[in-house]
Amino acid sequence: MLDANATPKPSPETKDTAAPDADRAASPLPVDHPPVKPAKIGILLANLGTPDGYDYWSMRRYLNEFLSDKRVIDYSAWIWQPLLQLVILSKRPFSSGAAYKSIWNEEAGESPLMTITKDQTAKIRAEMEKRHGGEVRVDFCMRYGNPSTRSKVREMVEAGCHKILFFPLYPHYAGATSATANDQFFRALMQEKWQPTARIVDPYFAEPMYIDALAESVERAYAGLDHEPDVLVCSYHGVPKRYLMEGDPYHCQCQKTTRLLKERLGWADDRIVTTFQSRFGPEEWLKPYTVEEVARLAEAGKKRIAVIAPAFSADCIETLEEINEEIRESFEEAGGEEFTYIPCLNDDDAHIAALSKVIDDNLKGWID
């Protein structure tokens, strides 16, 4: 009978395979016991996802997975799926593919989100190894597309991770982002014979180091301009207003980030505004809509604006294409003269330090 409490000491001989015959007498495991690797802690970063390419079929697979998620579109499947499969997915892969093509990292053969997430993971891995040595294993997954959450959980379990810290890279909680990432993580755990102990990282929208990193990115951007913008627009990804009424805290957390950023910069209220972008479908979403607000600002005489996207941990289609093209165009057509997009924090050292602080806070009790 197998001893569930057996905890063999790590050694070069037992790292990847069962102990050799000569060492079996000293091992607490029975001769026929399957290999047991030294216990580690897994840190699994998670982001939204990306298509594998911008061709029609890659886009269709990605959009089908994304838009079939009930956390994203919660309409009845009887109504939504025929519309999605017969209408939306016959047309949208072409327009979305063109948008992705305009920002694609052709050299690496991947989207900017994938490139940036890899860079973030590499820096966080190096930081965690510096702090904790071989006790931790750091990797990343995507909620939609590849690498899948399921595949990365499987890899961590196979590598001996008896504990996993799951970190959705969203500063603010929303059902359509943090919750669906968590759902997928839990589904992956359901497939494991021996489930690792798991923790989920809380949203970090008010973490002082995150706010400092945002403020420093604004200060750097402003220092490089000939004229200071009249207004800083904090553009967050939108969600239907109904979600707020049903208890989703996203709107309130976004407002708090803007307030904390304003206070950190020492600005008056009229120098910064909160807006929401990426509206989809017929119902009302959180307002004001970024694309409309930047036009209103231009018409009101605010000819120079800067836009930052605090809800995104990495630049992606919504920032590089939507903000830097569609929203910029709306501002300029309304009479705006100078539009500055401030990139996401990406793999900036201050951002990596903030994320590492959040990780260490959540490892307490596991690593002291």
Descriptive notes:
- This protein folds into two domains: 41-204 and 350-363, Rossmann fold; 208-342, Rossmann fold.
- The protein has a four-stranded parallel sheet with strand order 2-1-3-4, sandwiched between helices. A four-stranded parallel sheet has the order 6-5-7-8, sandwiched between helices.
- The chain is of the alpha/beta class and 368 residues long.
- The longest helix has 27 residues, at 77-103.
- The chain has eleven helices and eight strands.
Give a brief rundown of this model.
The chain has about 375 residues and is an alpha/beta fold. The protein has helices at about 55-65, 75-105, 110-130, 150-160, 175-190, 210-225, 240-245, 250-265, 290-300, 315-335, 350-365, and strands spanning about 40-50, 135-145, 160-170, 195-200, 230-235, 270-275, 305-310, 340.
Provide the helix percentage. Answer: 40-55%
How much β-strand is present in the residues? 15-25%
State the name of the first-level CATH class of the largest domain: Alpha Beta
The order of strands across the largest sheet is 2-1-3-4
* Main sheet overview: 4 strands, parallel
CATH architecture of the largest domain: 3-Layer(aba) Sandwich
Question: What attributes does this structure have?
Answer:
Rossmann fold; 11 helices; disordered N terminus
Helices and strands in order:
Blueprint lengths: L39 E11 L5 H12 L9 H27 L8 H21 L3 E10 L3 H10 L2 E8 L6 H16 L6 E4 L7 H16 L7 E7 L3 H5 L4 H16 L6 E6 L12 H10 L4 E5 L8 H17 L4 E5 L6 H15 L5
Parallel strand pairs: 1-2, 1-3, 3-4, 5-6, 5-7, 7-8
Helix pairs in contact: 1-2, 3-11, 4-5, 6-8, 6-11, 9-10
